[in-house]
């Protein structure tokens, strides 16, 4: 009832000829921006019906405000995103920092919005037209760079699954893998290293292997071996990377720290098992 009453009131206001492009205090958002930010799909649909621009560009003083679609992405409003795209909202619009829709989803950790965009982009052929998977912001960062920088593991997995480039370099010559080392993002680095060797890990199979082979001790040994392989691979990459001396030092620190963590975990597990077997004797 409340939604119906609101819709009738809004319809009456819009029917009266109010300016659907009007800004709050001349420098603020339009009604469509507000509807998209708060996920009010009914209001957004009516505003679009009465002529609101799905690609409405608004400036707040000298700064470009996010587009309606960017706001919907940022706040994970899938139904509003679909509505805007159906009304011609552009994939190609970027913010003042050059961030694309995927960059925005990742920075705000809007996983549902990210997966929706990736699915629509690949199924509709949008990625072929705009290369949104590897679109670069003003720092030459692809969405994968940003996901790695924030340690957003789920986004890294999704981007890799949809074919994001692991070889793209940012403005400082860093690939996502090198950046993961610099930012000490261990899990991201392992995912990227696995991808670089063309191996697609299957979590359920790994769990089954762990159960059949004795579990955590063998896993720890495997993880340490993987780190050594990662270290070797990284030094090959760094030979062709700017500032390789500084990065080499970071690699040593990263791998050494991770190895210490694995060994400490292994020792703790052994102590727990000994204590458990002793108490049960």
TrEMBL record:
Pfam families: Ank_2. The lineage of its organism: Eukaryota, Sar, Stramenopiles, Oomycota, Peronosporomycetes. InterPro entries: Ankyrin_rpt, Ankyrin_rpt-contain_sf, Multifunctional_ANK_Repeat. Keywords: ANK repeat, Repeat. SMART domains: ANK (SM00248). Signal peptide: none annotated. This is Uncharacterized protein. ANK repeats lie at residues 27-59, 67-96, 139-171. Residues 199-223 are annotated as: Disordered. Transmembrane segments: none annotated. The keyword Transmembrane does not apply. PROSITE patterns: ANK_REP_REGION (PS50297), ANK_REPEAT (PS50088). It comes from Globisporangium ultimum (strain ATCC 200006 / CBS 805.95 / DAOM BR144) (Pythium ultimum).
């Amino acid at each position: 009832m409340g939604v119906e009453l609101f819709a009738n009131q809004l319809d009456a206001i819009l029917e009266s000829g109010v300016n659907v492009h009007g800004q709050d205090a001349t420098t603020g958002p339009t009604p469509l921006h507000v509807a998209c930010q708060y996920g009010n799909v009914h209001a957004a649909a009516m505003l679009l019906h009465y002529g609101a621009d799905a690609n409405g560009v608004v400036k707040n003083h000298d700064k470009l405000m996010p587009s309606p679609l960017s706001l919907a992405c940022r706040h994970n409003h899938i139904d509003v995103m679909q509505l805007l795209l159906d009304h011609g909202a552009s994939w190609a619009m970027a913010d003042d920092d050059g961030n694309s829709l995927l960059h925005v989803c990742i920075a705000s950790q809007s996983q549902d919005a990210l997966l929706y965009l990736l699915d629509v982009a690949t199924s509709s052929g949008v990625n072929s037209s705009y290369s949104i998977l590897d679109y670069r912001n003003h720092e030459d960062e692809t969405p994968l760079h940003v996901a790695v920088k924030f340690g957003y593991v789920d986004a890294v997995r999704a981007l890799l699954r949809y074919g994001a480039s692991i070889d793209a370099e940012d403005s400082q010559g860093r690939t996502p893998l090198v950046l993961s080392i610099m930012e000490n993002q261990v899990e991201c680095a392992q995912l990227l290293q696995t991808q670089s060797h063309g191996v697609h890990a299957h979590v359920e199979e790994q769990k089954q292997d762990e159960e059949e082979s004795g579990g955590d001790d063998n896993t720890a040994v495997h993880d340490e071996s993987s780190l050594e392989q990662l270290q070797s691979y990284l030094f090959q990459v760094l030979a062709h990377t700017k500032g390789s001396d500084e990065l080499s030092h970071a690699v040593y620190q990263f791998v050494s720290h991770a190895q210490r963590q694995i060994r400490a975990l292994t020792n703790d597990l052994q102590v727990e098992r000994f204590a458990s077997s002793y108490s049960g004797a």
